[in-house]
Design brief:
The protein has helices spanning 9-28, 63-93, 147-150, 152-155, 158-179, 184-198; strands spanning 35-48, 59-61, 101-109, 114-119, 129-135, 138-143. By secondary structure, the chain is α+β, with helices and mostly antiparallel strands.
Length: 200
């Protein structure tokens, strides 16, 4: 794109300090109870982000834009609308050509059910094992080790489940921070936190 979007030293420091705070907040949210399912990606479709478009039949909206829309329905419409443009710009800066892109993943879950999720999170391919995390206004898809899909019983181990809950809570907290951003600089840092805590 011909522009340098690297975060400066102060930005990196803020990112690391903020990340520690997010992790601590996530640990305090473990009781919030995210629904977490594992599955294998069967199909990937790429399209342009359109915040005004309704999801396809049977599809759920995840990622940062989905969270902004959900918070708007919960009474945060003004904040969600204000952050929408900043979010779209941040997504575009972190994606490849033709961004901002929306990715529709068709996932065969371990339960045998099929899930379709639309998100701004790329880098997931057909055949990847993913975690589908949902709770409140947040939905997230992240790539995980194939072991989670090869042995669903092992994935249900209490210690592994607790770790997955903590990851999901940290992701939601990062999204909330991004939704509260009011400037490009704040959003740049906040969106990097979302990528750190919501991607594989």
């Amino acid at each position: 794109m011909g522009m340098d979007y690297r975060v400066g030293i102060c930005g990196v420091a803020a990112l690391l300090v903020g990340g520690a705070a997010l992790a601590q907040t996530a640990r305090s949210q473990l009781g919030s109870g995210f629904q977490i399912e594992f599955g294998v990606v069967e199909n990937v479709e790429v399209s342009r982000v359109d915040p005004t478009a309704a999801p396809g039949q049977g599809a759920a909206i995840g990622g940062m834009l989905g969270y902004a829309a959900g918070r708007g329905r919960a009474g945060r419409a003004a904040a969600g609308a204000a952050a929408g443009g900043l979010i779209s710009n941040a997504i575009a800066r972190n994606q490849k050509a033709n961004a901002p892109n929306a990715y529709t993943y068709t996932i065969m879950l371990a339960s045998g059910a099929t899930s379709r999720v639309i998100t701004d999170t790329g880098g997931i391919d057909v055949g990847d094992c993913v975690s589908v995390e949902s709770g409140g206004d947040s939905m997230n898809v992240r790539r995980v080790s194939s072991a989670f899909c090869e042995d669903p019983e092992q994935a249900a181990d209490p210690e592994i489940t607790a770790d997955a809950q903590e990851d999901a809570a940290a992701c939601q907290t990062a999204k909330e921070s991004a939704l509260n951003a009011t400037t490009e600089e704040q959003m740049n840092i906040a969106y990097k936190k979302v990528r750190l805590f919501c991607e594989s």
